[in-house]
Design goal:
311 residues; eight-stranded mixed β-sheet; three-stranded antiparallel β-sheet; 11 strands; 32% helix; binds iron/sulfur cluster
Protein backbone atom coordinates (compact mmCIF):
# COMPACT_ATOMS: atom_id res chain seq x y z
CA UNK A 1 0.00 0.00 0.00
CA UNK A 2 1.09 3.53 -0.66
CA UNK A 3 2.03 6.11 2.00
CA UNK A 4 -0.17 8.78 0.43
CA UNK A 5 -3.95 8.73 0.06
CA UNK A 6 -6.69 11.04 -1.08
CA UNK A 7 -7.12 13.89 -1.15
CA UNK A 8 -10.22 13.40 0.98
CA UNK A 9 -12.66 15.95 2.36
CA UNK A 10 -11.98 16.69 6.00
CA UNK A 11 -14.97 18.10 7.84
CA UNK A 12 -12.75 20.52 9.71
CA UNK A 13 -9.71 21.24 7.58
CA UNK A 14 -10.85 21.18 3.93
CA UNK A 15 -9.22 19.17 1.17
CA UNK A 16 -6.65 16.95 2.82
CA UNK A 17 -3.84 14.92 1.27
CA UNK A 18 -3.17 12.13 3.75
CA UNK A 19 0.11 10.52 4.69
CA UNK A 20 -0.20 7.10 6.31
CA UNK A 21 2.95 6.21 8.23
CA UNK A 22 1.81 2.66 8.85
CA UNK A 23 -0.11 1.54 5.76
CA UNK A 24 0.32 -2.19 6.29
CA UNK A 25 -0.72 -2.58 9.90
CA UNK A 26 -2.43 -0.84 12.81
CA UNK A 27 0.15 0.42 15.29
CA UNK A 28 -1.37 2.39 18.15
CA UNK A 29 -0.81 2.86 21.85
CA UNK A 30 -4.61 3.15 22.34
CA UNK A 31 -7.40 0.71 21.57
CA UNK A 32 -10.33 3.14 21.54
CA UNK A 33 -13.78 1.64 21.58
CA UNK A 34 -14.81 3.91 18.70
CA UNK A 35 -11.75 3.26 16.49
CA UNK A 36 -12.54 3.08 12.80
CA UNK A 37 -9.80 0.47 12.40
CA UNK A 38 -10.06 -3.05 13.79
CA UNK A 39 -9.55 -3.44 17.51
CA UNK A 40 -5.96 -4.36 18.40
CA UNK A 41 -3.83 -4.71 21.51
CA UNK A 42 -2.22 -1.32 22.16
CA UNK A 43 1.51 -1.02 21.67
CA UNK A 44 4.05 1.78 22.06
CA UNK A 45 6.54 0.14 19.69
CA UNK A 46 6.52 1.00 16.00
CA UNK A 47 7.75 -1.89 13.88
CA UNK A 48 9.21 -1.70 10.35
CA UNK A 49 9.24 2.11 10.04
CA UNK A 50 9.47 3.30 6.43
CA UNK A 51 12.32 5.45 5.12
CA UNK A 52 11.27 9.12 5.53
CA UNK A 53 12.85 9.98 2.15
CA UNK A 54 10.59 7.42 0.42
CA UNK A 55 7.52 8.94 2.09
CA UNK A 56 8.57 12.47 1.09
CA UNK A 57 9.07 11.30 -2.52
CA UNK A 58 5.53 9.89 -2.57
CA UNK A 59 4.15 13.19 -1.25
CA UNK A 60 6.12 15.20 -3.81
CA UNK A 61 4.74 13.00 -6.58
CA UNK A 62 1.15 13.41 -5.35
CA UNK A 63 1.50 17.19 -5.11
CA UNK A 64 2.20 17.33 -8.84
CA UNK A 65 -1.49 16.63 -9.53
CA UNK A 66 -3.33 18.06 -6.53
CA UNK A 67 -3.32 21.23 -4.45
CA UNK A 68 -4.70 20.34 -1.02
CA UNK A 69 -5.56 22.76 1.79
CA UNK A 70 -3.67 20.55 4.23
CA UNK A 71 -1.14 17.75 4.15
CA UNK A 72 -2.11 15.52 7.02
CA UNK A 73 0.31 13.22 8.80
CA UNK A 74 -1.62 10.29 10.14
CA UNK A 75 -1.29 6.52 10.44
CA UNK A 76 -3.17 3.33 10.79
CA UNK A 77 -2.72 4.07 14.48
CA UNK A 78 -0.73 6.77 16.25
CA UNK A 79 1.66 8.69 13.94
CA UNK A 80 3.87 10.04 16.72
CA UNK A 81 5.10 6.50 17.41
CA UNK A 82 6.91 6.66 14.04
CA UNK A 83 10.57 7.01 15.05
CA UNK A 84 11.64 9.22 12.12
CA UNK A 85 8.88 11.83 12.51
CA UNK A 86 11.23 14.78 13.03
CA UNK A 87 13.28 13.92 9.92
CA UNK A 88 10.12 13.41 7.89
CA UNK A 89 8.69 16.80 8.90
CA UNK A 90 11.97 18.45 7.87
CA UNK A 91 11.64 16.82 4.43
CA UNK A 92 7.96 17.76 4.02
CA UNK A 93 8.17 21.43 4.96
CA UNK A 94 9.89 22.56 1.73
CA UNK A 95 7.33 20.62 -0.36
CA UNK A 96 4.11 21.98 1.04
CA UNK A 97 3.82 25.31 -0.85
CA UNK A 98 0.66 27.07 0.46
CA UNK A 99 -0.78 23.91 2.05
CA UNK A 100 -0.65 23.61 5.80
CA UNK A 101 1.22 20.74 7.37
CA UNK A 102 -0.79 19.03 10.07
CA UNK A 103 -0.74 15.97 12.30
CA UNK A 104 -3.64 14.06 13.81
CA UNK A 105 -2.47 12.54 17.08
CA UNK A 106 -4.14 11.00 20.10
CA UNK A 107 -1.97 13.35 22.19
CA UNK A 108 -0.55 10.70 24.49
CA UNK A 109 3.10 11.19 23.50
CA UNK A 110 3.21 14.98 23.63
CA UNK A 111 5.19 14.79 26.89
CA UNK A 112 8.09 13.19 25.01
CA UNK A 113 10.46 16.10 24.13
CA UNK A 114 11.38 14.46 20.79
CA UNK A 115 7.71 14.38 19.79
CA UNK A 116 6.98 17.87 21.12
CA UNK A 117 9.97 19.36 19.27
CA UNK A 118 8.96 17.69 16.00
CA UNK A 119 5.31 18.78 16.28
CA UNK A 120 6.37 22.34 17.06
CA UNK A 121 7.46 22.63 13.39
CA UNK A 122 3.92 22.04 12.07
CA UNK A 123 1.22 24.54 11.08
CA UNK A 124 -1.59 22.67 12.80
CA UNK A 125 -1.40 20.15 15.63
CA UNK A 126 -4.62 18.31 16.35
CA UNK A 127 -4.61 16.32 19.56
CA UNK A 128 -7.44 14.21 20.93
CA UNK A 129 -8.67 14.62 24.48
CA UNK A 130 -11.81 12.53 24.91
CA UNK A 131 -11.71 12.30 28.70
CA UNK A 132 -10.18 14.11 31.64
CA UNK A 133 -11.02 11.55 34.33
CA UNK A 134 -9.07 8.38 34.81
CA UNK A 135 -12.22 6.26 34.88
CA UNK A 136 -13.57 7.36 31.50
CA UNK A 137 -10.10 7.40 29.89
CA UNK A 138 -9.48 3.78 30.86
CA UNK A 139 -12.92 2.75 29.69
CA UNK A 140 -12.92 4.57 26.34
CA UNK A 141 -9.37 5.04 25.08
CA UNK A 142 -7.77 1.96 26.68
CA UNK A 143 -4.15 3.10 26.44
CA UNK A 144 -1.07 0.94 26.71
CA UNK A 145 0.17 0.53 30.29
CA UNK A 146 1.94 3.62 31.64
CA UNK A 147 -0.15 6.32 29.94
CA UNK A 148 -2.03 8.38 32.56
CA UNK A 149 -4.52 11.05 31.51
CA UNK A 150 -3.36 13.53 34.17
CA UNK A 151 0.18 13.36 32.73
CA UNK A 152 -1.14 13.78 29.20
CA UNK A 153 -3.11 16.90 30.19
CA UNK A 154 -0.07 18.43 31.92
CA UNK A 155 2.06 17.70 28.86
CA UNK A 156 -0.51 19.39 26.60
CA UNK A 157 -0.38 22.49 28.83
CA UNK A 158 3.42 22.56 28.53
CA UNK A 159 3.31 22.05 24.75
CA UNK A 160 0.80 24.89 24.29
CA UNK A 161 3.06 27.32 26.16
CA UNK A 162 5.78 26.90 23.52
CA UNK A 163 3.61 26.40 20.43
CA UNK A 164 2.38 29.50 18.61
CA UNK A 165 0.78 27.88 15.58
CA UNK A 166 -2.71 26.36 15.58
CA UNK A 167 -3.51 23.84 18.32
CA UNK A 168 -6.81 22.04 17.91
CA UNK A 169 -8.23 19.66 20.49
CA UNK A 170 -10.77 17.08 19.40
CA UNK A 171 -13.22 15.53 21.84
CA UNK A 172 -15.18 12.51 20.71
CA UNK A 173 -18.21 11.77 22.86
CA UNK A 174 -19.62 8.28 23.26
CA UNK A 175 -23.00 7.64 24.84
CA UNK A 176 -22.88 6.51 28.48
CA UNK A 177 -19.07 6.75 28.69
CA UNK A 178 -17.85 10.32 28.48
CA UNK A 179 -21.08 12.24 27.87
CA UNK A 180 -21.92 13.03 31.50
CA UNK A 181 -21.66 16.35 33.36
CA UNK A 182 -18.87 15.23 35.70
CA UNK A 183 -16.72 14.41 32.68
CA UNK A 184 -17.64 17.72 31.01
CA UNK A 185 -16.59 19.66 34.13
CA UNK A 186 -13.26 17.83 34.23
CA UNK A 187 -12.71 18.46 30.51
CA UNK A 188 -13.57 22.14 30.89
CA UNK A 189 -11.09 22.52 33.77
CA UNK A 190 -8.33 20.83 31.74
CA UNK A 191 -9.03 22.82 28.57
CA UNK A 192 -9.02 26.14 30.39
CA UNK A 193 -5.42 25.32 31.29
CA UNK A 194 -4.43 23.98 27.87
CA UNK A 195 -5.93 26.97 26.00
CA UNK A 196 -6.16 25.49 22.48
CA UNK A 197 -7.09 27.70 19.54
CA UNK A 198 -10.11 25.57 18.77
CA UNK A 199 -12.00 22.65 20.27
CA UNK A 200 -13.97 20.31 18.01
CA UNK A 201 -16.71 18.27 19.68
CA UNK A 202 -17.93 15.27 17.74
CA UNK A 203 -19.32 11.82 18.08
CA UNK A 204 -19.12 8.55 16.18
CA UNK A 205 -19.60 9.07 12.45
CA UNK A 206 -18.28 5.81 11.06
CA UNK A 207 -18.43 2.09 11.81
CA UNK A 208 -16.46 1.36 15.00
CA UNK A 209 -14.21 -1.45 16.16
CA UNK A 210 -16.48 -2.15 19.14
CA UNK A 211 -20.16 -1.73 19.78
CA UNK A 212 -20.65 1.86 20.95
CA UNK A 213 -23.36 4.45 20.48
CA UNK A 214 -23.32 8.01 19.27
CA UNK A 215 -23.72 10.73 21.88
CA UNK A 216 -26.83 12.88 21.66
CA UNK A 217 -26.56 16.29 20.04
CA UNK A 218 -27.88 17.78 23.32
CA UNK A 219 -24.86 16.39 25.20
CA UNK A 220 -22.45 17.82 22.66
CA UNK A 221 -24.19 21.19 22.90
CA UNK A 222 -24.05 21.10 26.72
CA UNK A 223 -20.30 20.46 26.61
CA UNK A 224 -19.85 23.35 24.18
CA UNK A 225 -21.64 25.65 26.60
CA UNK A 226 -19.56 24.45 29.53
CA UNK A 227 -16.37 25.21 27.59
CA UNK A 228 -17.29 28.89 27.09
CA UNK A 229 -15.56 31.26 26.55
CA UNK A 230 -13.15 28.88 24.81
CA UNK A 231 -13.60 28.53 21.05
CA UNK A 232 -15.53 25.26 20.89
CA UNK A 233 -17.79 23.97 18.15
CA UNK A 234 -19.99 20.96 17.61
CA UNK A 235 -18.91 19.25 14.41
CA UNK A 236 -21.53 18.10 11.97
CA UNK A 237 -20.80 15.81 9.02
CA UNK A 238 -19.61 17.59 5.91
CA UNK A 239 -22.04 16.58 3.21
CA UNK A 240 -21.88 19.55 0.90
CA UNK A 241 -20.74 18.85 -2.60
CA UNK A 242 -18.02 21.10 -3.95
CA UNK A 243 -17.64 20.31 -7.62
CA UNK A 244 -14.10 21.70 -7.91
CA UNK A 245 -12.95 19.03 -5.45
CA UNK A 246 -14.03 16.19 -7.69
CA UNK A 247 -11.17 13.94 -8.66
CA UNK A 248 -10.58 10.94 -10.88
CA UNK A 249 -9.77 7.73 -9.06
CA UNK A 250 -8.88 4.55 -10.98
CA UNK A 251 -9.64 1.03 -9.72
CA UNK A 252 -6.43 0.77 -7.71
CA UNK A 253 -6.86 4.19 -6.13
CA UNK A 254 -10.45 3.44 -5.10
CA UNK A 255 -9.50 0.09 -3.55
CA UNK A 256 -6.60 1.72 -1.70
CA UNK A 257 -8.77 4.55 -0.44
CA UNK A 258 -11.49 2.21 0.82
CA UNK A 259 -8.84 -0.06 2.31
CA UNK A 260 -7.83 2.80 4.60
CA UNK A 261 -11.23 4.11 5.57
CA UNK A 262 -14.84 3.67 4.71
CA UNK A 263 -16.27 6.62 2.81
CA UNK A 264 -19.70 8.06 3.53
CA UNK A 265 -21.94 8.26 0.48
CA UNK A 266 -21.84 12.06 0.69
CA UNK A 267 -18.04 12.05 0.65
CA UNK A 268 -18.00 9.90 -2.48
CA UNK A 269 -20.47 12.26 -4.16
CA UNK A 270 -18.25 15.21 -3.24
CA UNK A 271 -14.93 13.68 -4.28
CA UNK A 272 -15.53 11.30 -7.18
CA UNK A 273 -15.96 12.53 -10.74
CA UNK A 274 -18.38 10.72 -13.07
CA UNK A 275 -15.72 8.36 -14.37
CA UNK A 276 -14.73 7.39 -10.81
CA UNK A 277 -18.38 6.75 -9.93
CA UNK A 278 -18.66 4.47 -12.95
CA UNK A 279 -15.55 2.54 -11.84
CA UNK A 280 -16.97 2.31 -8.31
CA UNK A 281 -20.10 0.75 -9.78
CA UNK A 282 -17.95 -1.78 -11.66
CA UNK A 283 -16.13 -2.68 -8.45
CA UNK A 284 -19.49 -3.22 -6.75
CA UNK A 285 -20.65 -5.48 -9.59
CA UNK A 286 -17.36 -7.40 -9.31
CA UNK A 287 -18.10 -8.00 -5.62
CA UNK A 288 -15.07 -6.05 -4.36
CA UNK A 289 -16.85 -3.14 -2.66
CA UNK A 290 -20.22 -2.81 -0.95
CA UNK A 291 -22.37 -0.23 0.77
CA UNK A 292 -22.51 -0.91 4.51
CA UNK A 293 -24.85 0.68 7.02
CA UNK A 294 -24.78 1.26 10.73
CA UNK A 295 -26.15 3.86 13.14
CA UNK A 296 -23.71 6.44 11.76
CA UNK A 297 -25.07 6.19 8.18
CA UNK A 298 -24.17 4.49 4.91
CA UNK A 299 -20.60 3.94 3.76
CA UNK A 300 -18.74 2.49 0.82
CA UNK A 301 -16.30 -0.19 2.05
CA UNK A 302 -14.15 -3.03 0.81
CA UNK A 303 -16.23 -6.17 0.99
CA UNK A 304 -13.52 -7.92 2.99
CA UNK A 305 -13.41 -5.03 5.50
CA UNK A 306 -17.07 -5.36 6.52
CA UNK A 307 -17.63 -6.50 10.05
CA UNK A 308 -20.89 -7.99 11.32
CA UNK A 309 -21.49 -4.64 13.04
CA UNK A 310 -21.74 -2.94 9.63
CA UNK A 311 -24.98 -4.64 8.66
S1 LIG B 1 -6.00 6.60 18.88
FE1 LIG B 1 -6.96 6.57 16.88
S2 LIG B 1 -6.02 4.84 15.79
FE2 LIG B 1 -5.56 4.60 17.97
S3 LIG B 1 -7.17 3.24 18.71
FE3 LIG B 1 -7.84 5.38 19.07
S4 LIG B 1 -9.04 5.92 17.28
FE4 LIG B 1 -7.87 4.06 16.74
Amino acid sequence: MSFVFGPVLSRRFGLSLGIDLSPAKKQCNFDCLYCELEGAKPTDRFVAPADPAAIARAVKHALQTTAPDVITITANGEPTLYPHLDALIDLLRPLKDSAKLMILSNGSTIGDPRVANALAKLDIVKLSLDCATDLAFKKLDRAVRGVEIADVINAMIDFRRGFNAQLVIEILLVKNINDNEAEFDALAAALRRILPDRIDIGTIERPSAYRVERAEIGAMELLRQKLAPLNAQVIKPNTKTITTMKQRFDRTAILELLGRRKLALGEVDALFDNDSLRILGELERDGLVVITENGAGQFWALKSACSPFDF
